[in-house]
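User: Hey, my collaborator sent me this sequence without any context and asked if I could get a structure. I don't really work with proteins. Can you help?
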Amino acid sequence: MGVSYMVRGQTRDECQAALDRLCRLLGATPTNPPTDRVGPGWVARAQAAAPANEGEGRG
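Assistant: No problem. I've predicted the 3D structure and written it out in C-alpha cell form, which is a compact way to encode the shape of the chain:
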C-alpha cells in the first residue's frame, strides 16, 4: 500500500489547492478528490510516489 497523505480544508477550493501543492512538492498522486462526506470540512488524499528500488529485498 505504501505511504498516503491527507489534506483537510474549510472549503473545497482550499482543500483542492492543498492537494495540488502536496502532489507537486512530493511527487504524490491524488487518490481521493476533495469530499465533505467524512466529517467537518473537506478532505482529500494522495499516495506517495513509489521509491525507485521498491520491490527489491533489503540487504
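In plain terms: Residues 2 and 48 are 7 Å apart (CA to CA). You can pass these C-alpha cells on to your collaborator as they are.
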